[in-house]
Design brief:
Blueprint lengths: L12 H8 L3 H9 L13 H10 L36 H4 L8 H28 L6 H20 L1 H9 L4 H26 L1
Length: about 200
Amino acid sequence: MAGKPKDGRSFSDASAAELLGVNERTVRRWRAQGLLACRSDGSLDQAATVARVNGGRDPLRGGKPDRVFAGATPLTPPAPAHRAAPPVDTGYAERSVGLEGAPGDAGKLLRARVLSEAVKAKLGQLRLRERTGELIPKAQAVQLFSDTLATARATLEGMPLRLSHRLVGLDAVGIRAALQAEVEAILKEMANGLDAAG
């Protein structure tokens, strides 16, 4: 480019290309996209330009997410699926770094991928807890609950028959103590039944 640029900058495309380590065509494309940063004196701000170029790179298009310009820190790849996943809550998508600033469809796709990975991690945690016996299937839990209630009902219904002969001749304090001992025995029996089933 001959002569001084007309847009207020004090550097040519060739000097910017040499300073940034790219070709002149790339510099012209970056200038058209508004990625070249100039200082107040019109000189090229190399660090700000590198930051703009890397900030505008979409990891979902044009190659691997670790491809960056001028040695900037590459994006870290996602953790392998075989590692234990950390607890996942429902507010992760809004708090994820950089997702709210991702442009257009690429941002939607990135948020969808984050959501998908979070759901996969949560499902993995649930499967692990099921395999280790921390979780049981719903049908089994419902059956256990029904069995426990049926046992409790039968035991409580039989209480008058079991206690009637022991309560004859007792005063109020003795009756209260006998009833309390029977209720505690029933509760202990139910707890032992639940522990044995679980």
